[in-house]
Amino acid sequence: MRKILAAGNWKMNNTPSQTEAMITELRDKVAGAKNDVLICAPFVCLPAAVKAAEGSNIKIGAQNLHFEDKGAYTGEISAQMLKEIGAQYVIIGHSERREYFAETDDTVNAKVIQALKYGLIPVLCCGESLKQREDTVTFDFIRSQIKIAFRGLSKEDALKVVVAYEPIWAIGTGKVATSEQANEVCSDIRNCLAGIYDQETADGIRILYGGSVNKDCAAELFSMSDIDGGLVGGASLKCDDFSIICNA
Length: 248
Ligand code: PEP
Prior knowledge:
The protein is an alpha/beta fold. The protein has a single domain, classed as Alpha-Beta Barrel (TIM Barrel). Helices cover 43% and strands 15% of the residues. The protein contains 12 helices and 8 strands. The protein has an 8-stranded parallel beta barrel with strand order 1-2-3-4-5-6-7-8, surrounded by 5 helices. Helix 7 packs across helix 9. Phosphoenolpyruvate binds next to strand 8.
């Protein structure tokens, strides 16, 4: 039985002091929430986030990591650093990183492997552009992202990964995919995973939808057969809205 995960992606928002205030407010609002709760904060906010979330049901994650253990990679952050600071999850391959920071399917695969090596749970993002949707190549494109991202992963490791299907045209645009549109892609991702592994493994992997999820559409999206929660950007910056999503 897959439990719904409400994952907030703060992106480049909130300072350490704002993080402390926000998690302190959120922890009361989501105490006893029906869904699992995750906040992915900027690197420098992670110590404040971990401290403020201590003893609560809020898990803390990062938004990126480097695929090497350590070395001459100025400005980068390693899996070991994240682990030591208390992060439990890490977003990998967000479309903004693919677009603005030249991440490729191969680096995404290397990062997923690296996260798992250090016991971090990858939140692996995939999703098509509007042009790809209009060209009716959505399913082929996402299957290719998934196959490369899971390359070399055992069944046991695959089961630890959380997939986030995020159509690029729905991220930050206020244009939410319909629950049917979102579910049909999440369902195809599950079929793709069943092809790589087996049905039992595919059925054990959580697949989230992301793209303008808000307090009004979350419950319907999360009720769909193959949607196991949401990766939430804008609405995760508003405590009241996000706490509704954590109970949706
Ligand atoms: C995201 O940050 O992954 C996201 C889906 O953002 P938003 O909810 O603002 O569209």
